[in-house]
Amino acid sequence: MSCDLCNTPNLKTNYIIVNIYNNNRLYIGNECFKKFQLILQGASTVEESEQMRKNRNAERDNVFKLRSMYPEVVKTKKPYARHFTAFKKVLIEVLEIQGLLSCRRGKDGALRAINHLFKIEQPSEAEVQRMYDILNDVSFPLLRESLKRQKQLKEGDTFKRKGRVTHTTVSKSGIYRNH
Ligand SMILES: [Zn+2]
After folding, report:
1. CA of 31 to the centre of ligand 1 (A)
2. CA of 97 to the centre of ligand 1 (A)
3. Is 99 inside any structural domain?
């Protein structure tokens, strides 16, 4: 796809200007969109349009992210806990923006979410079940802990919340030795 105004080739994203009188369409790229200060349908100012454009791009990125995570989070038996949580958060956000929170109701809803967002027409029963669990906050015992957490704690390990581990055994601690 190239820009109809300046002929820049290979546009990644494009905008369509429609002449409402004769329905003629022009495909234009990002640069021309900005240059001519066009605003998106539904926006009334350049600023509002810019915000809409950002929101749409963020949504597109989110859908892309979800699709790339789908095989692990929905199809494998034990996805990583943090991937599962991240997937769930983004999924609910996207469904909310698209007005599709009704997908949280029942297995039919789960199937619709898969059809619609992931463009998978006939998912397996297990996939639908997993999507249902994700959408309905069913606690999920099969999550794989990340490898880091499984490692034995070593002296000097730091934690985001708990701070630094200075002694791994009681025998090394000052309190123990001094008594
Ligand atoms: Zn152009």
Report:
1. 6
2. 30
3. yes
